[in-house]
Amino acid sequence: MALFDLPLDELREHRSESVAPDDFDDFWSGTLQEAREHDLDARFEPVDTGLSTVDVYDVTFAGFGGHPVKGWLRLPAGSSGPLPLVVEFVGYGGGRGLPHENLLWASTGRAHFTMDTRGQGSAWGGGGGTADPVGGAPAYPGFMTRGIDAPENYYYRRVFTDAVRAVEAARSHPLTDATRTVALGSSQGGGITVAVGGLVPDLVAVAPDVPFLCDFPRATTLTDRHPYREIGLFLKTHRGRSADVQRTLSYFDGVHFAARGRAPALFSTGLEDQTCPPSTVFAAFNSWAHEDKTIELYDYNDHEGGGPYHEAAKVRWLRSYA
């Protein structure tokens, strides 16, 4: 697919039409306060992986509603002191995978925490193990319309809360340095990263790659690819509910979390990305509040973005922060 979105000079100026609800901050502070009424109860069980350079721990902690959420903590083998911490969130449909997967960040000498995404982990990769015990109103198959009838019920309220608690759980391990915490992820993981960047005030850096869940008003009308298309298919059946749906989504739009971002940021986008169109990524990047921000462009790439090239770019970039 050739370039289909706005020209680059317009991308650099693009702003979302999404308007933050007046009670956006109260909604999220109240949500997190409710979650913190449950004991975090972070447990780290060592896993025998046969790996000699990385130690792996099977993690369980209390997320939204006190529900158990899984994760992996990977540490350089034999670590004895607090390490810079990378907390990673995964893409749509994926889970935390298997303990021997995803060894890059531990191989750089950092602690690496990967959060499982509740209810997901069955579409690709090594799977996941976290249920979503909360029901919701009728929804098109997938996750984008689960509980979309109201912000209090929406699926990503639970996921973003899990993500904040994941940072807290990872920081509770004695070999992690809470003062040098980085959040990152790709696609859905990038969207979760943007949300965490707006909800956790003391991160040292964030790196959202080709982030999903940004600029909903544009994304839902520009691309017909899934997962955004799930919303259109829901509205195709539930006629006349567009305004209600966009109101719910406004509480979860990355552009509003970005406006509250307090850490240096490295974004990325593929200019041929039809899954998370570049204008939606630029909407979040242009709203990012911290002045130390960079976006890497991959001119001829779709949703794969920079792939291993961008992983190398992140490794170089993070040397300045953690």
From TrEMBL:
Record-annotated Acetyl xylan esterase domain positions: 1-319
Pfam families found in the cross-reference section: AXE1 (PF05448)
Highest taxon of the lineage: Bacteria
GO annotation, biological process: polysaccharide metabolic process
Binding site for substrate: Y92
MF GO annotations: carboxylic ester hydrolase activity
Record: active site: S187, D273, H303
Name of this chain's protein: Acetylxylan esterase
Organism of derivation: Streptomyces fuscichromogenes
